[in-house]
């Protein structure tokens, strides 16, 4: 018999959400049978009744508490009566106002949707902008258009991070205080955001027509040249090749950025200041990136291919090892120095 | 935890076991009477300690795996979708967030790196967490409908499977020659193509597959960097 127990269900509904599922399952399953009427237990204090009784008592208690709370004077921080009511209302209002302000600020600043329009691009657009970033335009008489998007620059910065990581790994760079990943990300993002802000500040001083977003986009696309140069020269370790690429590719992307800025600035001094700063920083950054992680490789190679150094090497006192042994009187040299001198002489 | 009492009804013993489940309220003492098995009144036999979630009979309970939300068939389907780059992805399979598979794959990746002598579980989990966060932000900005973090993490995790092939190859052979470079590039392309294909079909972003696959390629490239060096 699958009669659902009405009193049990009724009593349990007040207890909480866990009891609702029980009732549903009874109707669906048919195997959970509670047939209290047919129970032989006639002691009068059946479990169902006990449970029901307890539940009812508890509900009454809760109701009594609630009623008592309402009937009370409504103490608020020890102040009874009218004062308590007033202070509670004031506190409530302050809380509401504070909450409204906080939620407004949060929705304004933490809303990632502000950046949504800057990521609305097509692959063809990104491709054409990448190629255009290497082509300087000569027309500086009227302001040149800058695409205000952030997808391309962000991807280029991440690409630079990846190339830098690859370079660090191939050159066996060891960073003692920090991680390789952290250093690479810090360097690239620091350059992109920091130099953009600095040039934007200078542009503000020089009265140039450029917004922060445009500056970020311009500098971001300018890193395309850096990516190409570093990708090639981290794998082919030739200094001459690097200098050639540095001037050619780095120079082209710098010229492009300079041309855009010149077209948006009035006055020779201002143009010189702004463009000179940008060109210097951009070219020097490429130089730094190449040599910071390349030097380690060179250092290791020199050590491995240098002259044979004896395993135990004791430095002689006050006697420079570079001097030929014949010049020094033999009585001055001690045994160690003599041994070193002999070794040096043999080479 | 409350004490849940099971009482066998004397009336319908012949049929399937019928239980009365009674949840006593607090401070209530209850006794269990089991006919035929009890040792007299007052004995506590057949009592089960249960939490509040289970309130049904044993037969009506859903299977454990179903309750936990782990469906092997779905896991297998998603794995196949991640592995087969040319198979058309069904956008709806990524609606349910399943992180069990990706966790296992990350663990397997770390284990294969361990076989090659690199103890870098921390890097694997750290990079995957940060990478998932980055992809989540980017996809939310680029798509009309948003994507949940769990969905992004699940897709990226399932498409990590070819990378495990690369790292297991690295156990025996070194990946620093020309063969290694070509293999690495191929595997990165495979992983990012699969991931972008699933994202595109789930978020209806036709025409932007290259834009989605490039950041995925960068992320998987970092994993490949760990495998190779």
Could you outline the blueprint of secondary structure elements for this entry?
The complex is a heterodimer of chains A (347) and B (229).
Chain A: H1 6-13, H2 18-29, H3 47-71, H4 81-109, H5 123-132, H6 151-170, H7 180-205, H8 212-233, H9 239-263, H10 268-305, H11 335-346
Chain B: E1 3-8, E2 19-22, E3 48-49, H1 64-68, H2 72-83, H3 100-115, H4 121-142, H5 149-158, H6 161-172, H7 178-203, H8 209-228
Antiparallel strand pairs in B: 1-2, 1-3
Keywords (chain B): Golgi apparatus, Membrane, Transmembrane, Transmembrane helix
Transmembrane segments (chain B): 123-143, 155-175, 181-203, 210-228
Protein name (chain B): Protein YIPF
Rg calc of chain A: 40 Å
Q: What would the principal axes of the Cα set say about the shape of chain B?
A: globular
Q: What proportion of the residues of chain A is helical, as a percent range? A: 55-70%
Q: How many β-strand runs of chain A?
A: 0
Class based on secondary structure composition and strand pairing of chain B: mainly alpha
Poorly predicted regions of chain A? 1-17, 20-30
In short:
The complex is a heterodimer of chains A (347) and B (229). Chain A has 347 residues and is an all-alpha fold.
Structure description:
The complex is a heterodimer of chains A (347) and B (229). Chain A is mainly alpha-helical. Chain A has helices at residues 6-13, 18-29, 47-71, 81-109, 123-132, 151-170, 180-205, 212-233, 239-263, 268-305, 335-346. The termini of chain A are far apart. Chain B contains 8 helices and 3 strands; from the N terminus they run βββαααααααα. In chain B, helix 3 crosses helix 4, helix 3 (100-115) packs across helix 5 (149-158) and helix 4 (121-142) packs antiparallel against helix 8 (209-228). The longest helix of chain B is centred in the last third of the chain and has 26 residues, at 178-203. Chain B is globular, with a radius of gyration of 26 Å. Chains A and B meet through helix 2, helix 3 and helix 6 of A and strand 2, helix 4 and helix 8 of B.
């Amino acid at each position: 018999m699958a009669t659902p127990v009405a009193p049990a269900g009724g009593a349990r509904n007040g207890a909480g959400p866990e009891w609702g599922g029980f009732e549903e399952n009874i109707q669906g399953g048919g195997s959970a049978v509670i047939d209290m009427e047919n129970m032989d237990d006639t002691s009068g204090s059946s479990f169902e009744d006990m449970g029901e009784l307890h539940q009812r008592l508890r509900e009454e208690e809760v109701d009594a508490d609630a009623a008592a709370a309402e009937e009370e004077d409504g103490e608020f921080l020890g102040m009874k009566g009218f004062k308590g009511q007033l202070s509670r209302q004031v506190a409530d209002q302050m809380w509401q106002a504070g909450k409204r302000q906080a939620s407004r600020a949060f929705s304004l600043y933490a809303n990632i949707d502000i950046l949504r329009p800057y990521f609305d691009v097509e692959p063809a657009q990104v491709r054409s902008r990448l190629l255009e970033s290497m082509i300087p335009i000569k027309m500086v008489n009227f302001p040149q258009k800058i695409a205000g998007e952030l997808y391309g620059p962000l991807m280029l910065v991440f690409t630079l991070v990846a190339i830098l990581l690859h370079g660090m790994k191939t050159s066996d760079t060891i960073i003692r205080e920090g991680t390789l990943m952290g250093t690479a990300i810090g360097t690239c993002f620091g350059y992109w955001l920091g130099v953009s802000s600095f040039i934007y500040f200078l542009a503000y001083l020089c009265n140039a027509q450029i917004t922060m977003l445009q500056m970020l986009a311009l500098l971001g696309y300018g890193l395309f040249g850096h990516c190409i140069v570093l990708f090639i020269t981290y794998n082919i370790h030739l200094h001459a090749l690097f200098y050639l690429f540095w001037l050619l590719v780095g120079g082209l992307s710098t010229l492009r950025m300079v041309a855009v800025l010149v077209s948006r600035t009035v006055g020779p001094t201002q143009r010189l200041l702004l463009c000179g700063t940008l060109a210097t920083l951009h070219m020097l950054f490429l130089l730094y990136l190449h040599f910071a992680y390349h030097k380690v490789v060179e250092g290791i190679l020199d050590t491995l291919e240098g002259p044979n150094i004896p395993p135990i090497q004791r430095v002689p006192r006050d006697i420079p090892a570079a001097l030929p042994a014949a010049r020094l009187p033999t009585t001055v040299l001690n045994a160690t120095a003599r041994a070193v001198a002999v070794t040096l002489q043999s080479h | 935890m409350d004490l849940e009492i099971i009482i066998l009804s004397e009336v319908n013993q012949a049929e399937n076991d019928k239980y009365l489940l009674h949840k006593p309220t607090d401070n209530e003492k209850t006794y269990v009477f089991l006919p035929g098995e009890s040792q007299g009144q007052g004995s506590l036999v057949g009592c089960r300690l249960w939490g509040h979630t289970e309130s049904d009979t044993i037969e009506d309970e859903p299977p454990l795996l179903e309750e936990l939300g782990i469906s092997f068939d779905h896991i297998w389907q998603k794995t196949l979708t991640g592995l087969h780059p040319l198979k058309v992805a069904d956008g709806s399979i990524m609606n349910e967030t399943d992180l069990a598979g990706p966790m296992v794959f990350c663990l397997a990746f770390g284990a294969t790196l361990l076989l090659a002598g690199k103890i870098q579980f921390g890097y694997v989990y750290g990079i995957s967490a940060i990478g998932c966060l980055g992809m989540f932000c980017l996809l939310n900005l680029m798509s009309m409908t948003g994507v949940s973090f769990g969905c992004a993490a699940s897709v990226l995790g399932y498409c990590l499977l070819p990378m495990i092939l690369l790292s297991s190859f690295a156990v025996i052979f070194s990946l620093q020659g020309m063969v290694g470079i070509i293999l690495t590039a191929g595997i990165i392309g495979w992983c990012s193509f699969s991931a972008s294909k699933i994202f595109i079909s789930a978020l209806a972003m036709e025409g932007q597959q290259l834009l989605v696959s490039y950041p995925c390629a960068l992320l998987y490239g970092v994993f490949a960097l760990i495998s190779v060096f």
